[in-house]
């Protein structure tokens, strides 16, 4: 796999000449893992739910018909599937690998536990679960192009015998109630049309005592980092997308989709509304990403 640091020289400095790569990297490494926060049980400003948005929903900064978003998201990921791992390196400057290690470490993998990995794409979380000693896993994604990359990686890693690979819409999971011990979704929830439905479905398929985990880009909570992050997201990232994947538009959507995703407390409230309990979250890299978790009790 391409070394994420090899992209370092491709990022152009800002007009005043400061080294924004160094500033991003220094801040992100300094705040790479923050303490777990018990989300307060209080009302937060509502994130638009399916009932509130009517016939339209967000696709980045655009408002599109709800029934078209899945197709549009599918086209984005079909476009970038072959470069997806490189894309994550570009978007996070390689730090997503550390975030995923922290995420997998929180799952508490055991041989007698079963994992459902939603929007599992190229398989990083599923592979991490198995290598940590977890039981059988379902690697799922709505996009068959992404899954084919994950399946090929599993074959090369000798893990395919422990994995079911399934095309699954996270809003309507084809599993019985109370059938898995862990449900994960990493960098996928923001691309779902009906996020509330995903959370309800995740709770439904969890066994009592099971736990849901979400790793997602979130709301930056360090003021000094925000302008650097915005410059990276909207000035550099689309150019890198054009250079690496010949697709600036998809990278522009991905940057916009992060800004449209609910903040940490709003997502925590959505999880509680879906019936999950003891909801917590942990900021990573000053809130650039966050891990949310909740139990089915």
Tell me the span between the first and last alpha carbons. Answer: 41 Å
What shape does the CA trace take? Answer: globular
Q: Look at the helices and sheets and give the structural class.
A: alpha/beta
Count up the helices. 11
Order of helices and strands: HEHEEHHHEHEHEEHEHHHEE
Strand order of the largest sheet: 1-9-10-8-7-4-5-6
* Share of β-strand residues: 15-25%
Query: What kind of sheet is the major sheet?
Result: 8 strands, mixed
Radius of gyration (CA) equals: 18 Å
Helical amount = 40-55%
Low-confidence runs? 1-21, 44-53
Number of DSSP strands? Answer: 10
Q: What average pLDDT do the residues reach?
A: 81
Quick take:
This protein has 297 residues and is α/β, with parallel strands linked by helices. The protein contains eleven helices and ten strands.
Please specify the SSE layout and strand pairing.
Elements: H1 20-30, E1 36-38, H2 50-53, E2 56-59, E3 62-65, H3 66-80, H4 84-92, H5 96-106, E4 115-118, H6 124-131, E5 137-141, H7 144-157, E6 163-167, E7 180-186, H8 195-205, E8 206-217, H9 226-245, H10 248-260, H11 264-273, E9 277-284, E10 289-295
Parallel strand pairs: 4-5, 4-7, 5-6, 7-8
Antiparallel strand pairs: 1-9, 2-3, 8-10, 9-10
Helix pairs in contact: 4-9, 5-6, 9-10
């Amino acid at each position: 796999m391409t070394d994420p640091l090899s992209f370092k020289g491709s990022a152009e400095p800002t007009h005043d000449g400061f080294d924004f790569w160094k500033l991003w990297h220094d801040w992100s490494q300094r705040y790479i893992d923050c303490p777990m926060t018990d989300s307060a049980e209080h009302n937060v400003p509502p994130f638009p739910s399916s009932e509130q948005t009517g016939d339209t929903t967000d696709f980045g900064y655009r408002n599109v018909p709800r029934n078209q978003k899945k197709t549009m998201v599918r086209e984005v990921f079909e476009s970038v599937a072959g470069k997806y791992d490189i894309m994550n390196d570009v978007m996070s400057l390689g730090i997503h690998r550390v975030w995923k290690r922290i995420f997998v470490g929180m799952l508490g993998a055991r041989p007698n536990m079963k994992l459902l990995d939603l929007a599992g794409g190229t398989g990083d979380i599923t592979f991490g679960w198995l290598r940590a000693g977890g039981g059988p896993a379902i690697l799922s994604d709505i996009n068959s192009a992404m899954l084919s990359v994950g399946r090929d990686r599993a074959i090369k890693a000798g893990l395919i015998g422990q994995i079911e690979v399934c095309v699954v819409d996270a809003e309507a999971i084809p599993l019985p109630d109370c059938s898995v011990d862990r449900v994960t979704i990493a960098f996928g929830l923001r691309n779902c049309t009906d996020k509330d439905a995903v959370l309800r479905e995740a709770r439904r398929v969890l066994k009592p005592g099971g736990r849901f985990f979400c790793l997602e880009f979130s709301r930056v909570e360090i003021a000094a980092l925000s302008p650097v992050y915005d410059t990276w997201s909207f000035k550099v990232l689309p150019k890198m997308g054009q250079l690496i994947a010949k697709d600036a538009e998809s990278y522009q959507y991905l940057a916009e989709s992060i800004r449209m995703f609910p903040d940490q407390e709003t997502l925590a409230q959505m999880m509680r509304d879906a019936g999950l309990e003891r909801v917590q979250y942990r900021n990573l890299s000053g809130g650039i990403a966050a891990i949310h978790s909740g139990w089915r009790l």
